[in-house]
Amino acid sequence: MKKLSVLLLALIVSTLIFYGCQKKEDVIKIGIAGPMTGDQAKMGTDFKNGVTLAVEEWNAKGGVLGKKIEIMVEDDQHEPKQAVSIANKIVNAGAVGIIGHFNSSCSIPASDVYNRAGIPMISPGSTNPQLTEKRYKGVFRVCGRDDQQGKVGAEFVINELKLKKIAIIHDKTTYGQGLADEFKKFITGKVEVVYYSGIIQGDKDFKTVLTAMKDKKPELIYFGGIYPEAGLIVRQAKELGINVPLMSGDGTIDPKFIEIAGVKAAEG
């Protein structure tokens, strides 16, 4: 986290130098935006804490370009409309750069606001390809893309696991469905997709979807989504006697996944 935050800050500073530091304030204000509350708060607070640490270290050395760095933290609640509102707030507050947003569904519309304002944006976690396909010169990410991790996942299922039948479930978000569809694109014609369905992010009971899937007898579940729903899916699948592994992307890489699923259900 410390190395990531230093990289993010270094990229922001480099971009500021590239753009030119037009503002004459005594501080350099940088926005941080992501899910700081709710079921995805861990994602937002993790990178917020990393950036805060990096800023403290830079300021202890005298700041950047002779100025102290000041951060403003905003909670987009992983809601696209809220993200756009926050983007405008950050721009109007005079920030010269933004570290965020986390969710692709938030970063993509918010990037339009930052691009119009001419300030750089660096997302720590938005993997949907469309974020950078717009070719905005000030929009960056420090993570891979869904068309990369979808392909790698498909190749692992085909070449290493050598499975014949799989199920795909996604959370209908820009990130989740985008990742699931990239995985499906690369696996189609090589492994049979016996079940494909979406769930609603934030729901707690997925047994109807899992029961319908169970009849198709998949050998693996591929999930496009975030750890809160992934954990519940794994736990409820075990309760229904569905004893197949779950594969997913970077959105499920969090210790809380195991906490939600339960150690026994999450094993393997």
Task: Kindly summarize this structure in a few lines.
This protein has 268 residues and is α/β, with parallel strands linked by helices. It is built from eleven helices and nine strands. The longest helix has 20 residues.
Mean pLDDT: 90
What structural category do the secondary elements indicate?
alpha/beta
Oligomer: single chain
Q: Looking across the biggest beta sheet, what order are the strands in?
A: 2-1-3-4-5
Shape type = elongated
Unreliable stretches = none
CATH class category name of the largest domain: Alpha Beta
CATH topology of the largest domain: Rossmann fold
Q: Per DSSP, what share of the residues sits in E-state strands of 2 or more residues?
A: 15-25%
Features:
268 residues, Rossmann fold, 4-stranded parallel beta sheet
Please describe what this structure looks like.
- The chain has two domains: 2-141, Rossmann fold, CATH 3.40.50.2300; 146-266, Response regulator (Rossmann fold).
- The chain is built from eleven helices and nine strands.
- It has helices spanning 2-19, 41-60, 80-92, 104-117, 130-133, 146-161, 174-187, 207-214, 227-239, 255-261, 263-266; strands at 27-34, 68-75, 97-99, 121-123, 139-141, 165-170, 192-198, 221-224, 246-248.
- Helix 7 links the parallel strand 6 (165-170) and strand 7 (192-198).
- The chain is elongated, with a radius of gyration of 20 Å.
- The mean pLDDT is 90.
